[in-house]
Amino acid sequence: MTSLIVINPNSSQTVTDGIDTAIDPLRRFGTPIRCHTLVEGPPGIENQMQADLTIAPMLKLAAEQGDAAGYVIACFGDPGLHALRHQTALPVVGIQEAAVMTALTLGQRFGVIAILSASIPRHLRAFGAMGVMERLAGDRALGLGVAELANKDRTLGAMIDAGKRLRDNDGADVLIMGCAGMAGFRTALEAETGLPVVEPCQAAVSMALGQIALKMSHRPREQHDAR
Question: Which pLDDT score, from 0 to 100, does residue 9 have?
Answer without folding.
Answer: 97
